[in-house]
C-alpha cells in the first residue's frame, strides 16, 4: 500500500535567501523519507503555489495527501489559507483524502535549536548580566503573539540564558527597541537579539538594523545578533512527526512539553513517571495503618509567621475619600459577534471596600473587570477610576491605578526569578538602581517572599506563586486590586495565608470568585451579575442566605454550609 503523499507548505518570501532555505529543509525531509512522494508549494510570494504542488502529487497517483505547514507559529494568515487550500483541493479532487497537519509549534526540538542559536551569540556572557530580545514576526492574531511569550518563558526556565524579553518585528508590541530597553532596565549589560524565525527573509535584516540603531544610542550595552533557526536537520524530523500525527492521531499528553513525556532541564528524572494522585506526592506511603476506631482529630498547626515589612499599600492619602474608587455608569458591552456581555451596569465602589463579584459562568464578571483598565471598550456608558474616565487618552494613568492578579499565576510570572518578575513593572515605568531594588524588596516583604527573590517561579508552591503574582502588582503601587479566583486549587493552609494577606492590604479590592465561603470570609458586600446585569448588590451574608435567589441565579453553597452561622 502506497503511503500518503506529503506536501510541504511554505509561507513564501520575496527574499531569495529565505526561499532557498525552504528548499534546503525540503531536501533534508526528502532525504529522511526517501519512500514518500513529497511536493512543495507556497501560500504566496514564491513559486510553485500550494495548489500546483497538490495537483502534482495527485497526478503522480496519490489518493491521500497530508499538508504540513513549514511555519513555527501559525498566525491568522495560515489559519485561513491552509484550510482554504484544502477546500479548493477537495473540490478539484473529490476522490482524494486531504489532511492538514499543525504547525511546528512550541516543541522541545524547536526550543533546543533556538537555545543553541542564543548560546552561540552569547558566548561566555554571565547569565546574570545577559538579556535576550526574542523577536518574532508580529501578528494581529493573538494566538501567535501569545505563543512567542510562551516560547520566551520556556527558554528562560532553568537554561542559564539570562532574562528573555519577547518582541516583534511589526504589527504587535513591544517592538525590537522596546524589548531591548526592557532588558537594559532589568540589568542586562549584554543583549542578544535572537530572531525567532524558521527561515530568513526581509524581516531578519530589518530586525538587525533596528537593533544596531538602538545599540548606537546605548554604547554602554554590548549588543550581539543571533541567528534564526534555519534548515536544521532536527526540524526535518519534526516535520515528519507532524505528518505522522496527521495520519495516526496526536500522541501528546497535555502538550509537547509535558515533563512526564520529554526531558526538560531540571526535570530529567520525571520522564515517563505517572502523576501521583496521593497527598504524599511521589514518595511511597510510610507508616502503619491505624485500626478502624475513633481517633481524636489533631489540632491544626499554627499558621506560619510571615516576616512582613509594612508597605505603602493603603488607600492614597492624596485621594479624596468622597471620590469613589470605582464608578460604573450605564455600562453596556457587546462582543464582536454581537453577543451582549454587559447591559446597563451601574456600580459604585468606595475607597478601601473589599467587594465580592459573584455570578454563574458567562454572567459578565470578566467582561466587567476588563473594562476597569481599558482592556475592553464599552459600547455605551462610562467607567471612572478615582474620578478618571477610562479612555484611550487615560489608559496609562488608569492601568497604574488598577492591578489585576490572574487566576493562574503562571500567566503573570515569566522571567527567570521572582525578583525580576516583581521588578518588571516598575522598571517599565522608568525605575532603576536603588529605587527599583527598594520597590521590589518592599513588595516581596509584604507578601512574605523576601527569601525567594532569586528563586525561579516554577520552583515555588502554587500558594507562593500566587503571592508572588500579588507582589508583581503591589510593586506598581496600585490603588485598586482585582483578584480573579484567588483560592482556586489552593490547599487549606495556602488559602488561609492568602486570605490573611488580602485582609492586611487595606486597599480597595474586587474579588471575582465562585468560592462563596471564601468570599464571605473576606468581604462584607457582594455584587451579583447574571446575563450581563447587576441582579443583587448588598450585604453578602444576606445574599448568600437567600436560597431562592441563589438557586435562581445558579449559585450554590457547599453542602452543610450555613452563611448565617458565623
- Relevant CATH superfamily of the largest domain: P-loop containing nucleotide triphosphate hydrolases
CATH topology of the largest domain: Rossmann fold
Tally of extended strands? 18
Question: What is the CATH architecture descriptor of the largest domain?
Answer: 3-Layer(aba) Sandwich
Structural category is alpha/beta
Q: Determine Rg (CA atoms, Å).
A: 27 Å
User: Judging from the principal axes of the Cα atoms, what is the shape?
Assistant: globular
| Count of discrete structural domains | 3
- Give the count of helical stretches: 17
Mean pLDDT figure: 85
Largest sheet descriptor: 6 strands, mixed
Task: Report the top-level CATH class of the largest domain.
Answer: Alpha Beta
List keywords for this structure.
566 residues; alpha/beta; Rossmann fold; 3 domains; 6-stranded mixed sheet; 4-stranded parallel sheet; 17 helices; globular; ATPase-coupled transmembrane transporter activity; ECF_ABC_transporter_ATP-bd; ATP hydrolysis activity
